[in-house]
Write a structure and sequence with these properties.
The structure holds two protein chains of two kinds. Chain A is mainly alpha-helical. Chain A is built from eleven helices and two strands. Chain A has two domains: about 40 residues; about 230 residues, MetI-like fold (Orthogonal Bundle). A two-stranded antiparallel sheet of chain A has the order 1-2. In chain A, α8 runs antiparallel to α11. Chain B folds into two domains: about 160 residues, 3-Layer(aba) Sandwich (Rossmann fold), CATH 3.40.50.300; about 80 residues, no CATH class. Chain B is about 40% helix and about 25% strand. In chain B, the strands form two sheets. Chain B has a six-stranded mixed beta sheet, sandwiched between helices. A four-stranded antiparallel beta sheet of chain B has the order 2-1-4-5. The radius of gyration of chain B is 18 Å and the shape is globular. The chains are: A mainly alpha, B alpha/beta. At the A-B interface, α7 and α8 of A face α3, α4 and α7 of B.
Chain lengths: ~290, ~270
């Protein structure tokens, strides 16, 4: 009754082949991750210490710690977030909930996609021209963060718009049918149910900016500073630029230092990502439909 | 045909004020015509049944009344719809219009709020904040929708997590919470068991004294049980409007109506 026919056997064989093939691809995918993390931990671990994280660099950056760079990167990301999140979320709400579907909206959407495709070095030059020179912010945390913000704006908008669109249309219509205005509907139904997606998406995307080098090297990040930044108009050190500097610009650098800096940078990004993932897991458990 | 429908209208209830006037109403989606040249009046405090097979334009008709054409750029409404004498195409405050009209569509939508907040939403949107008043409204509407006994101990659980039939009754309770002048029900019993359906039908009969009800239904017998007058829609046209009993027993203008109500259709 249940004997396998020729066709059954053929399908089974194909099934095994495709599973093997797809699994193999996945394995290849995680290989670089393991290699990178392994190398960094193996070579960077020797310099890891409390002092490395929380002391100033000394002796031409070959000794001491990386605290100013670590702090600088965190500051840059936070200020960039403060600028890009309100702007991006507001624009995404407009585009998703209000904008009529016409050529103008489509043009805006196209512009956003194009903005995401602009190389970071071009953003850097734009930031230099706009924020450093035109707005007279000088090379400062503010100018660098705004440059990063412009760069992350498209991903913030796209992530937000997708979270908003994930809220079923039926909820909006049910609400409108009761006589709710668009804003009442957004405020009471759409946003509360999209906010988790927005948060996780934004954190995930923006954490990548921690590693960006080009946009900040003309606009606010410097090779070396003997003191910590006191405000947003000060220049700062940053991990990504520091990594570039200790890898290529300083003679007689101990080999472990660049690996240590890279390890700290990657851990910082992973930390932000895991916050986002933890948030997502926590909130998925509270899914409302 | 339109004329005969009019006469049937006038013969019976002409002394009651008109709640909803429909004059030569046509609805199009792009190039598709959903409804064509429909005219009749719906009187205050009547239950007006609309029967007809799928694709007859019944739901489109309800959408036009609630100005849902504004949600869908493809949808065009022509002709005249008047609500308590006001041309609804000229109403600038569509929110005020929709607040006076409660709608229940066949697919239940429990909003992702607590059961309580689902029912309290419409009063809150209208600006009501008083907790005690809200409590009264929530209990009354849930009771009328035959849902109170099942949810009274878990008003804080999510409305969107209730079963399909419960969500349907929640949707009804929400529509009632608007204290509408006109209640439009589109196949409300589709996800509700027969016993509960009967309970809701009893409630509808009581509500008739407070509001006008349009009842779109696939169940011909439901229209017969509830509706004072009934219209038969077929392929975008309104073939008959008559006092419900007449539709079932007396003269009908169109043979197809008779075939439909007697189940000899197709």
């Amino acid at each position: 009754m249940f004997e396998a026919t020729q066709t059954n056997l053929k399908n089974l064989r194909r099934q095994n082949i495709s599973r093997g093939l797809l699994g193999g691809m996945t394995a290849i995918l995680i290989l670089p991750v393991i290699l990178i993390m392994g190398t960094l931990i193996y070579k960077g671990a020797p310099v890891m210490s409390f002092e490395f994280l929380f002391a100033n660099p000394t002796n031409g950056m070959t000794e001491g710690g990386i605290f100013p760079a670590l702090l600088g990167t965190i500051l840059l990301v936070i200020v960039a977030l403060l600028a890009s999140v309100p702007l991006g979320v507001a624009a995404a709400i407009y585009l998703s909930e209000y904008a009529p579907d016409n050529w103008f909206t489509r043009a805006i959407n196209l512009a956003i996609i194009n903005l995401a495709g602009v190389p970071s070095i071009v953003h850097a030059l734009f930031g230099l021209g706009a924020f450093v020179i035109f707005f007279r912010f000088g090379t400062s945390i503010l100018a660098a963060s705004l440059t990063l913000a412009i760069m992350t704006l498209p991903v913030v908008i796209v992530a937000t718009r997708e979270s908003l669109q994930a809220v079923p249309m039926a909820f909006r219509e049910a609400c409108w049918n009761m006589g709710a205005t668009r804003w009442q509907t957004i405020r009471r139904i759409v946003l509360p149910n999209a906010v988790t997606g927005i948060l996780t998406g934004v954190i995930l995307e923006v954490s990548r900016t921690a590693g960006e080098t080009a946009p900040i090297m003309f606009t606010g990040a410097v090779f070396f500073l003997p003191f910590l930044p006191q405000g947003v108009f000060d220049q700062t050190m940053a991990l990504s630029l520091h990594l570039f500097v200790v890898s290529t610009q300083v003679p007689e650098m101990p080999e472990a230092v660049p690996y240590g800096v890279a390890l700290v940078l990657i851990c910082l990004v992973l930390l932000m990502n895991s916050v986002s993932i933890a948030l997502r897991m926590y909130l998925r458990g509270k899914k409302k439909w | 045909m339109v004329n005969t429908a009019r006469e049937a209208n006038n013969a019976d209830v002409s002394s009651v004020p008109i709640k909803l006037g429909v004059e030569n109403l046509s609805i199009h989606y792009g190039n598709e015509t959903a409804l064509e040249g429909v005219s009749f009046d719906i009187r205050e405090n009547e239950i007006f049944g609309i029967i007809g097979p799928a694709n007859a334009g019944k739901t489109s008709f309800l959408k036009a009344i609630n100005r849902m054409d504004l949600f869908n750029p493809d949808m065009r409404v022509e002709g005249n719809l008047s609500f308590s004498g006001h041309d609804i195409s000229k109403v600038r405050n569509v929110y005020g219009l929709r607040r006076r009209i409660g709608v229940v569509f066949p697919l239940p939508v429990g909003l992702p709020l607590s059961v309580y907040d689902n029912v309290a939403l419409a009063p809150r949107l209208a600006g009501l904040k008083d907790k005690a008043e809200l409590n009264v409204i929530v209990e009354r509407c849930l009771t009328r929708a035959a849902l109170w006994d099942e949810v009274k101990d878990r008003l804080n659980s999510l409305g969107s997590m209730l079963s399909g039939g419960q969500q349907q009754r929640l949707t009804i309770a929400r529509a009632l919470s608007q204290e509408p002048e006109l209640l439009m029900l589109d196949e409300f019993s589709i996800a509700v068991d027969p016993v509960t359906t009967m309970r809701i039908e009893e409630v509808l009969k009581e509500l008739k004294s407070e509001m006008t009800i349009i009842l779109v239904t696939n169940l011909v017998q439901q229209a017969r049980r509830l509706a004072d007058r009934t219209a038969f829609f077929l392929e975008g046209k309104c073939l008959d409007v008559a006092v419900t009993e007449d539709l079932f027993t007396g003269e009908v203008t169109d043979q197809r109506t008779r075939d439909y109500v007697e189940g000899r259709f197709g």
